[in-house]
Design brief:
The complex is a heterodimer of chains A (about 220) and B (about 110). Chain A has one domain: P-loop containing nucleotide triphosphate hydrolases (Rossmann fold, 3-Layer(aba) Sandwich). In chain A, strands 4-3-5-2-6-7-8 form a seven-stranded parallel β-sheet, sandwiched between helices. Helices cover about 35% and strands about 20% of the residues of chain A. Chain A is α/β, with parallel strands linked by helices and about 220 residues long. The radius of gyration of chain A is 17 Å and the shape is globular. The termini of chain A are far apart. Chain B has a domain of about 80 residues: hypothetical protein PF0899 fold, CATH 3.30.2320.50. Chain B is an alpha+beta fold. In chain B, strands 2-1-6 form a three-stranded mixed β-sheet, covered by helices on one side. A three-stranded antiparallel β-sheet of chain B has the order 4-3-5, with no helix packed on it. The chains are: A alpha/beta (about 220), B alpha+beta (about 110). The interface between A and B is large, with 34 and 40 residues. Strand 1 of chain A pairs antiparallel with strand 6 of chain B.
Chain lengths: ~220, ~110
């Protein structure tokens, strides 16, 4: 006997993500899901964002890592409320891990919540968390072919920060080739070449983020 | 590790529907998987054999129907398949396709007895 189902396999996650989203909207919290390969600069982008915006917006951070509190410690040094989620081996955050972490943040006193996902270009794509925007941080040493190799990720993001552009003179990185790959998949993506180290290009990202945050 | 979480969700869904149908055993699970979904079928089968032990789905065969990634050109509307390293529209050469297929990951049906 055949039983018709036709249901998304991750529908349970999707449902929790929608509940998270409703809560964020009710509390007026704007939420980013920040994804990248390990070492691309997710935490550095978050630090830069906090340094620039913490006098204007009340910011909270959720740090997702397989193990350790290294990233959460970096954020806590900036005086920002941060919750560390250790996934214990799992390669991505899911909506339920975020839901469980939320009571540890004062959402009523938060304007912008930055969620740093586990370093991985594949799995986080499939697990919505309830975020308003998906952001990917790519970095020049990873190579210019990444959009072609990880189309699933690059096709769903709202913004792309290309970090470590200060290293371009040392690398064989074809910025046009990279950009063509991204735009073919995702023509509406907001693209920010930057260096979190030198600060180049960071302001453009901040201006865009503040604008999107205001629009809700 | 991703496939483990996915496989568990898959098993739960199959068991829910099998239970509702009053089935004794799940023989086969028919899945539709897009090329862009990031799913590795061998890995899912491996975890499935492990997590389904002692359930109605033990020994069930997983059938993967793969959906190739397809774009719709934003400039001329032509629909085309993703080609390695070259994603320009083959008709007008424009970049900027809407992904219209390839992200699927759903359970189409199960076969039970």
């Amino acid at each position: 006997m055949k039983v018709e189902i036709v249901r998304d396999i991750l529908s349970a996650n999707e449902q929790i993500a929608q509940e998270n989203r409703r809560l964020f909207d009710e509390k007026g919290v704007f939420v980013l899901n920040i994804m990248a390969a390990p070492g691309a600069g997710k935490t550095s982008l978050i630090e830069r964002t906090i340094e620039t915006l913490q006098n204007r917006l009340r910011i909270g951070v959720i740090e997702g890592d397989v193990a350790s509190t290294i990233d959460a410690d970096r954020i806590a040094r900036l005086g920002i409320p941060v919750v560390q989620i250790n996934t214990g081996g799992t390669c991505h955050l899911d909506a339920n891990m975020v839901r469980v972490a939320l009571p540890r943040l004062l959402l009523d006193e938060t304007d912008l919540l930055l969620i740093e996902n586990v370093g991985n270009l594949i799995c986080p794509t499939n697990f919505a968390l309830g975020e308003h925007l998906k952001v990917i941080v790519a970095s020049t040493p990873e190579g210019d072919d990444k959009p072609y190799k990880y189309p699933g990720m690059f096709s769903v993001v709202d913004a792309l920060a290309l970090n470590k552009v200060d290293l371009l003179p040392l690398l064989e990185f074809d910025l046009d080739y990279f950009r063509r790959g991204v735009e073919a998949l995702n023509p509406d993506v907001a693209f920010f070449p930057m260096s979190c180290k030198t600060g180049e290009g960071v302001q453009e990202w901040i201006d865009w983020l503040v604008e999107r945050c205001r629009a809700g | 590790m991703h496939e483990l979480a996915v496989t568990q969700s898959m098993l739960n869904l199959a068991l829910e529907y099998a239970g509702r149908a009053g089935a004794q055993r799940i023989m086969r699970i028919n899945l539709v998987v897009g090329e862009l979904s990031g799913i590795v079928d061998e890995s899912v089968q491996f975890y499935f054999d492990f997590v389904s032990k002692g359930t109605l789905a033990e020994g069930a065969q997983l059938a993967f129907e793969w959906q190739p990634a397809r774009f719709c050109c934003r400039t001329c509307g032509h629909e085309f398949a993703l080609q390695d390293g070259n994603w320009a529209c083959p008709v007008c050469q424009a970049l900027g396709g809407e992904v219209i297929a390839g992200r699927e990951f759903y359970m189409d049906s199960i076969e039970v007895e």
